[in-house]
Design brief:
Elements lengths: L4 H34 L2 H4 L10 H41 L9 H18 L21
Helix pairs in contact: 1-3, 1-4
Length: 143
């Protein structure tokens, strides 16, 4: 797993960005939806039985609850994506290269792109344009 650490760090950084954007989007959309719903006549009319004198508190509470739910969901997403990356890297290490079926071609492409970016960042000219897959690149010292 250490052998593929740079590629995993790149992919983990991408999932971190996705988590932050996901939490912000879920929180903002729920806050805006609750503000829009509370601006209806039913909640703004003083004569209504459902009148809310200060809807800002309800909107803030709604946004806080949405953030907590989004945080929980994105934490599960983080664990799931990290598990997939670790399993894929372990498969690469144990079998000398991943055995790709039809179902994981997207993960293969993403991982190979991250491996290539990691090689470029380290200045490794070990890439070839002959279309053949490369053996797993070893990032650990002494290999």
């Amino acid at each position: 797993m250490i052998d593929h650490g740079a590629a995993m760090a790149i992919l983990n950084g991408a999932t971190c960005i996705f988590q932050v954007v996901g939490m912000a989007a879920i929180t903002a959309s729920c806050g805006l939806l609750s503000a829009w719903l509370l601006s209806s006549e039913k909640y703004e009319s003083v004569t209504s039985t459902s009148y809310i004198p200060n809807p800002g508190y309800a909107v803030a509470l709604s946004a806080i609850l949405a953030f907590l739910v989004a945080w929980s969901f994105m934490a599960i997403f983080d664990v799931t994506s990290d598990t997939l990356l670790i399993c894929f890297a372990e498969d690469m290490t144990q079998s000398g290269g991943a055995r790709h079926g039809k179902n994981n071609q997207d993960l293969k492409a993403i991982y190979e792109e991250a491996e290539e970016r990691a090689r470029e960042m380290q200045g490794d000219p070990a890439s070839s344009d002959d279309g053949h897959p490369h053996p797993p690149y070893r990032y650990a010292r002494g290999k």
